[in-house]
Amino acid sequence: MKLLEGHMLYQRGSRSDHFYRVHSGFVAATVNRADGASLLLEIFGPGAIFGEGPTFAGTPRTATITALTDAELVGYTRDCLAASAESNHRLALSLIELLGAKNHVLVNKLARFASGTPFDRLVGLLGRIAATDRSPGQDAVVVSLTHEQIASMSGLSRVTVTRTLKAMAAEGLLSTHPSHVRILDRAAIIALLNRD
């Protein structure tokens, strides 16, 4: 299915028997804070799977999903996957591994969010984006987020994000622009993410 930039796939609290894999483009998972401001939780790009938790648990959606760019998604149902998993145990094992990896990322993200320096928080965010970008043979990664959006995702002020990005740019890790950040040294950002 195609989802045009800015269009919503589903809203927090809704129910569905589908989960999705991003074939192309990027989608954002957001929730509204108590003050009504939107908090950007995650960005999913090509190859990412999202929405499987509520689908399998039969619970309401935990976030709103909106296309950041034009995106092409592949939808799967719980029943379709269950039937396939009965005859393909590797598929079931892969899904369990995926859920374990997502849990690991979530725990690390919460730890960084709760106690990390601004540098660590931005490395966590940009490192995950760089690690999921599948542009073959390219070390540079364009992150189409404004400083305000990055601040929302990292729990920092826009001013702190701007200062921290400038320091990272001075180290040659990235360049910063009004509407995006360009990761210049993908391998270095990923290495910083995995240094724990």
Please characterize this protein's 3D structure:
With 196 residues, this protein is of the alpha+beta class. The chain has helices at 52-57, 78-87, 89-115, 118-132, 147-154, 158-170, 186-193; strands spanning 2-3, 8-10, 18-24, 27-32, 38-44, 49-50, 64-67, 71-77, 141-143, 174-176, 181-183. Strands 1-8-3-6 form a four-stranded antiparallel beta sheet. Strand 10 (174-176) and strand 11 (181-183) form a beta hairpin. The radius of gyration is 17 Å and the shape is globular. The mean pLDDT is 85.
- Number of helical regions: 7
**Average pLDDT metric:** 85
* Alpha-carbon Rg, integer: 17 Å
In which order are the strands of the major sheet placed? 1-8-3-6
What portion of residues belong to β-strands?
15-25%
| N/C terminus separation | 38 Å
- The helix/strand series, from N terminus to C terminus, equals EEEEEEHEEHHHEHHEEH
Shape: globular
Low-pLDDT stretches are: none
Structural class: alpha+beta
Share of residues in helices: 40-55%
> Largest sheet, described in full?
4 strands, antiparallel
Assembly state: single chain
Identify the notable features of this structure and list them briefly.
4-stranded antiparallel sheet; 44% helix; 7 helices; 196 residues; single chain; 11 strands; alpha+beta
Task: Give the topology, please.
Elements (H helix, E strand, L loop, with lengths): L1 E2 L4 E3 L7 E7 L2 E6 L5 E7 L4 E2 L1 H6 L6 E4 L3 E7 H10 L1 H27 L2 H15 L8 E3 L3 H8 L3 H13 L3 E3 L4 E3 L2 H8 L3
Antiparallel strand pairs: 1-8, 2-7, 3-6, 3-8, 4-5, 4-7, 9-11, 10-11
Helix pairs in contact: 2-3, 4-7, 5-6
